[in-house]
Amino acid sequence: MNLMKRLLWIAVGLFTSFASIVCGRTLQVKSRQLSGRDTVLLPFDATAAADRFAHALRYATVSNETGPLDPSAMDSFRSFLQQSFPLVHARLRREVIAGHSLLLTWAGADEKLSPILLLGHMDVVPIEPGTEGHGFIHHFQEIRQMGTYGAAVPWMTRSP
Known about the structure:
alpha+beta
């Protein structure tokens, strides 16, 4: 029993020593975080953003492996984006890739810095032919009729 107590006290002592060293070293570490620029809050109109989002959902930009099912929907959607975000399209280099994809390049102020990639997509995947009655319904027609975004999210939902 005496040996067990000694071993326990040795273990407690070792743990306490280790914890003290870790805490002491942690307190000595200086932050390497870069100081940022002053933050500038830009005005944001949540209603306008929601309206643009609702309007964007009305475009049936459905595509498959061979491309868009309705190329005019993709073209209309690109025009909508250009009208909705004129400064983005005026200041960034804009390229249309493979007839339908949109690539916007935003050149940074310092070319020595590594680039970043912000990525999104403008199309949705179609429902497999023959599975339409398996619980999913498209909302494009409902969205066009309703003219609102209340029932527009998500792209597809389960029907009862």
